[in-house]
Amino acid sequence: MGEQHEGQEHSAEPTRPPLTAARAREMTAGLREAMDDVRRSVAVLAARVRDAHAARVWLPLGHSSWEPLP
C-alpha cells in the first residue's frame, strides 16, 4: 500500500504546481515544529512513566506488579 512499482502510473494523485522556495520553507518549518512537539511530548511521557514507576503506582491500585497483564 502506498508503494509505486515500475509500470504503475500516479493516476490517483492530482498534479500539483511546483512549490515556491517560500512555501517549501514554510512546509519544512512546520515539519520541524511538529517534530519538536513530538520530542517534548515524548520527554513528558518518559518523565511521567519514571515518576509513576518510582512511586510504585501499581500498589495502591491493587496490582501485584508493574508488569502488564497477559
Our count of helices gives: 1
Please give the share of residues in helix.
40-55%
Q: What can be said about the biggest beta sheet?
A: none
Question: How many domain modules?
Answer: 1
How does the overall form come out from the CA principal axes? Answer: elongated
* Model regions low in confidence, pLDDT < 50 over at least 5 residues: none
Structural class computed from helices and strand pairing? mainly alpha
The N- and C-terminal alpha carbons lie at a distance of: 32 Å
Mean pLDDT: 87
Order of helices and strands: H
The share of residues in extended strands comes to under 5%
Number of strands: 0
Write down the Rg. 23 Å
Description of the molecule:
The protein is mainly alpha-helical and 70 residues long. The protein has one domain. It contains one helix and no strands. The mean pLDDT is 87.
Quick rundown:
This protein is mostly helical and 70 residues long. The chain has one helix at 21-54.
Question: What would the keywords be for this entry?
Answer:
70 residues, mainly alpha, 49% helix, 0% strand
Which helices and strands appear, and what pairs or packs with what?
Layout: H1 21-54
